[in-house]
Amino acid sequence: MTSKKILLSLLLLVFAIALKSQNYEESNVQPYTLPELLKTESGQVIATADEWMQIRRPEVLRLFEDNVYGQVPKSFDAIYFKKTREEKNVLNGKATVKEVNIIVTRNIKQVTIHLLLFVPNKVKKPVPAFLVINHRGMETMDVTRGNKDDFWPVEQVIDAGYALAGFDVKDVAPDDKERFADELLQKLYPDQLAMNNGMRALGAWGWGASRIIDYFETDPAVDAGKVVVVGHSRGGKAALWCGAQDQRVAVAISNESGNSGAKISRRNFGESVEAITKNFPYWFCKNYQQYANNEDKLPVDQHMLIALQAPRGVYVSAAEEDRWADNKGQYLSLIEAQPVFNLYGFNLNLPLQMPSVGNQLFEIPMGCHIREGKHDMTLYDWQQFIRFANTFFQKK
Ligand code: GTR
Q1: Burial classification of residue 390, based on how many CB atoms lie within 10 Å of its CB (0-12 exposed, 13-18 middle, 19 or more buried)
Q2: What is the pLDDT of residues 55-104, one digit of tens each?
Q3: Residue among 210, 233, 254, 333 flagged as catalytic
Q4: pTM recorded for the entire structure
Q5: Least packed by Cβ within 10 Å: which of 42, 55, 113, 299?
Q6: Alpha carbon nearest to ligand 1 atom 10, residue
Q7: Spatial contact of 174 and 182, defined as CB atoms under 8 Å apart
Q8: pLDDT in tens, 234-289
Q9: Is residue 303 flagged as an active site residue?
Q10: How many domains does the chain have?
Q11: CATH code of the domain containing 317
């Protein structure tokens, strides 16, 4: 073979490998078999909500810990809440803003989560709250409202009668391959770093949201039983993982979370486990690497993450042009998770077809929408979240 031909065959090979892991053609989606949701590892068939809660749910949670996101340590020595600011008349008198340092200690080390919280003034307390796992930096939540970002539409959320809370993920785990361990992992849980099923960034972000719920339990203005955890993309993966770990979460909202979030991993469309573990190894436990290009060996798939939210609320949103996130794969997870919700007496029967673009669909406690446009979290998305939450909480 001439060197030209060798080069050409090599290029074709590279192209074929890339194609295998990043398919965008529906007709190229290969058949797959999902792990069984309602059968335990020892073969016991789960037939009641009680059996799910006592037997299968803990098993599925452990499988996600050991193979995907890593453990989430529950213990620490102390937690303190230090209000650093409170202004009672912001947003034209409509809201009170608070900033609270949430300080968590373990073995004489500490981390501080900076919580930003807006609470509506003229509404009966306590109020339900949206809690955003924010990976886009504090600027997006600009407290002075000089920089209004649709990612954080506090005016609209307050008008709808909800509190809006947020924190920057860097307080617990910077979103960076080199520095992700700088906060929570090195300071409080260094032992996790040595473990193949140890916590990494996504686990830390969800852990951070849980500490904010700890704070809500002490704030009479917020209803800690009505917390909607919201995340976009990588934040959406963390929101689902947080809702799986922490059953105080009333609703988990995953906005365009895609691979290792809401989408079925075995469906070879858009981002693959290979791509995500290569580009973002520090989001997941080490064990997850072994499923790159090997999704069929995963003992879970992401519909089981949706099922772990039952019987609480779960909402999955998508954007038409966000093919990387595999909108159909996300919707299929909702469909596949329904049997667990139905053990609780719901009668979910979502249509097999995804809603068309511009439409919202919900059968409480599940909901979804798909909007036109690109990968982002927009005011339109928030309007749908609020509409879903109003119905979920039976608010006016
Ligand atoms: C992408 C990543 C996705 C998604 C996204 C985001 O680069 O591949 O899984 O998380 O980032 O967070 O915006």
Answers
A1: middle
A2: 999 999 999 999 999 999 999 999 999 999 999 999 999 999 999 999 99
A3: 233
A4: 0.95
A5: 42
A6: 234
A7: yes
A8: 999 999 999 999 999 999 999 999 999 999 999 999 999 999 999 999 999 999 99
A9: no
A10: 1
A11: 3.40.50.1820
